[in-house]
Amino acid sequence: MAARPLVSVFSLSGDKAGETTLPAVMTAPLRPDVVQFVHTNMNKNKRQAYAVAIRAGKQVSASSWGTGRAVARIPRVGGGGTSRSGQGAFGNMCRGGRMFAPTKTWRKWHKKININQKRYAVASALAASAIPALVMARGHKIDEVPEVPLVLDTGVESTKKTSVAKDILNAIGAMDDVEKAGDSKKIRAGKGKMRNRRYTMRRGPLVIYAANDGIEQAFRNLPGVELCCVDRLNLLQLAPGGHMGRFCVWSQAALDKLDTIYGEDGKRIPTAAMTNADLARLINSDEIQSVINPAKPAPKTYPAKANPLRSIVALEKLDAHAANKRRMAQKAQQDREANKAQLLAKKRADRTAKKAFKAQGKAFMAIASKQGDVCANGFTIE
């Protein structure tokens, strides 16, 4: 593995005490889409089942009146002597009725998450916590922090007093973030304030340690401060709300242990497909430009020629009145077709009249040939 940057290790008084190597997991690619997806599913795994009572809205004797009474067919409360009788029941549109599709406790509350995807999300969140711009963009106050990631001497794990913990955070410039979290404490809006969720507070620093020699008791009572063992890193703490860039305070033992946790047993640390994603910079670099062929001249193009006798567009370019002439010719054709129908109808009527007249003559000649000379009213001359 190539040499990685060194990270400063600070003493409990805020002075630089040494250096350590940046863990390889801190160079993992940032995948906010994976982090958001895994966080959403992980956050569902602490839900408790809830449902309405099975008989809610149905504890009444009601039946439909049927048709023929000019009222809705919804079940109605029977009996009399009270305003409740005759009122609709059971339906979700009725007062006192059940809800639509009553909730059930056998809903699928929890979500299974791909192990590799979960590891990828944690690696991305760890890498984002080492980028000061993302930490500041998340809202943490790190103006006085000397370096990110912030690593303290392993002796911080044996701190047992909260007063000593405050002095340590003041020495390294992390107290501003704690005070910001403390000032953000507000009463929750809504009914959660009645359900043991009375206050809301912003997240402060996340203190990560390797062994609990009293550090939990020292830091846990500071507002906004959370603690986590490096063996049990949790995405819900590394990326609260699915947003990468949590301000983390590491002990040196915890930071050095990351290479063991994320590199043992043949586990592969996520790496980006491209070390440098700036394609324009790569293509225009001297190394690539020196070996590629020179750009070929663009082929000469010629305007496409169209036959105006076949192409209406080409004809309109030559004759501005071509479209008008075409419309007039079409109108004349339509008029001819309309007149043709009238002429045919007239000819057929004349032909029918001639045939009828000719048939009358033939009928007369047939009668005359049988009776001899014909007088009026069918009398014959002897």
From TrEMBL:
**Superkingdom of the source species:** Eukaryota
**Keywords, sorted A to Z:** Ribonucleoprotein, Ribosomal protein
Concerning InterPro entries, the annotation shows:
Ribos_uL4_C_dom, Ribosomal_uL4, Ribosomal_uL4_euk/arc_CS, Ribosomal_uL4_euk/arch
Q: Give start and end of each Large ribosomal subunit protein uL4 C-terminal domain.
A: 266-338
User: Pfam families attached here?
Assistant: Ribos_L4_asso_C (PF14374), Ribosomal_L4 (PF00573)
Keyword Glycosyltransferase annotated: no
A biological process from GO: translation
What GO MF annotations does this protein's record show? structural constituent of ribosome
Might you report a single GO cellular component term?
ribosome
Entry similarity comment? Belongs to the universal ribosomal protein uL4 family.
Q: What is this protein called?
A: 50S ribosomal protein L4
Source organism (scientific name): Nitzschia inconspicua
